Amino acid sequence: MKLCVALDLPTKKENISLAKELKEFDVWLKVGFRSFIRDSKEFLYKLKEINENFKIFLDLKLYDIPNTMADASEEIAKLDIDMFNIHASAGKKAMKAVMERIKKFEKRPLVLAVTALTSFDEESFRKIYGSPLEEKAKEFAKDAFESELDGVVCSVFESKQIKEVTSKDFITLTPGIRPFGEEAADQKRVADIKSAKENLVDFIVVGRPIYKAENPREVVERILTNL
Ligand code: C5P
User: Fold this and answer.
1) Dihedrals φ, ψ of 142, to 5°?
2) 205 lines ligand 1 (CB under 6 A)
3) Which band of pLDDT confidence, cut at 50, 70 and 90, is reported for residue 186?
4) Contact predicate 22/217, CB 8 Å
5) Which of the listed residues 205, 219, 220, 223 should we mutate to test ligand 1's pocket, taking the one with most ligand atoms within 8 A of CB?
6) Which of 58, 149, 165, 227 could connect to 144 by a Cys-Cys bridge, CB 3.0–4.6 Å?
7) Ligand 1 atom showing the smallest separation from residue 206 Cα
8) Is 93 among the residues known to form the active site?
9) CB-based contact 217:23 (threshold 8 Å)
10) What is the total count of domains within the chain?
11) Distance 127 CA to ligand 1 centre (A)
């Protein structure tokens, strides 16, 4: 299991200093909307400058018509990043268009599909998608697998079942991790490291429990020894 640290701090300066603090660790860094919109691709290059072995997950959750998603994915594939994501609810046609478009890149990034956001509880999910969350998350995962994506973003609670209906090698990345039972905040389907392991999760994403800690390095070290 790998740790992916969400660089969700309010300023570029703070994100950079967190990355510098973590430079000796074997971690992935997650760059989301806020910093990518504000600091653009130079920010990604800066992270690789801090440690060229940092792996970068660009969390932009693309959702649009197939051609627009393929165009955007092609631009993303030109950046020096290692993984990005799109929404499974954009449909198989869109997911296939993305994979078709980026297959020409010699070293293409991994592509994951978002199934159900971890901030949804059962009721709010059903209101939008009209089906039970677990069932729909599995269906989205199957669609992503059949569209030849590399894996999905899901909660710990769906990870094992998703592997059962796809493949054990189909990547699951799970946000909503509270490593040692910390406060959930806006996340609903939260779990700790122990249950992530039991559910065969490949990547855990941790944001606030690290960057809001008094000593983020210490928290990362503790997480890594427990993976
Ligand atoms: O602070 P916290 O650990 O809750 O951060 C989780 C991170 O994972 C945030 O950056 C959030 O945008 C992201 N994320 C998520 N749920 C998803 C996909 C991404 O929480 N389904």
Assistant:
1) -65, -40
2) yes
3) confident
4) yes
5) 205
6) 149
7) 3
8) no
9) no
10) 1
11) 21
The pTM (predicted TM-score) of the whole model is: 0.94
% the chain with pLDDT above 90: 92
Task: Take residue 50 and report the two structure tokens written for it.
Answer: 């801090």
Mind listing the pLDDT tens digit for each residue in 78-136? 998 999 999 999 999 999 999 999 999 999 999 999 999 888 899 999 999 999 999 99
Host domain of residue 72:
2-226
**Residue 177 DSSP symbol:** B
Q: CB-side exposure of 226: number of CA atoms within 13 Å?
A: 17
Does pLDDT of 181 surpass 90? no
147 lines ligand 1 (CB under 6 A): no
CATH number of the domain bearing residue 27: 3.20.20.70
Residue located nearest, by CA, to atom 11 of ligand 1 = 175
Ligand 1 centroid vs 186 CA: distance in angstroms? Answer: 10
Secondary structure letter of residue 89 according to DSSP: G
**Residue 117 CB–ligand 1 contact under 6 Å:** yes
pLDDT band (50, 70, 90) for residue 185: confident
Annotated catalytic residue, options 41, 46, 61, 197: 61
Residue 137 in contact with residue 162, Cβ under 8 Å?
Answer: yes
- Mean pLDDT across the chain, nearest whole number? 96
Measured in whole angstroms, how far is the alpha carbon of residue 141 from the centre of its chain? 14
Higher pLDDT, 118 or 11: 11
Q: What is the pLDDT of residue 188?
A: 83
Closest C-alpha residue for ligand 1 atom 21 = 117
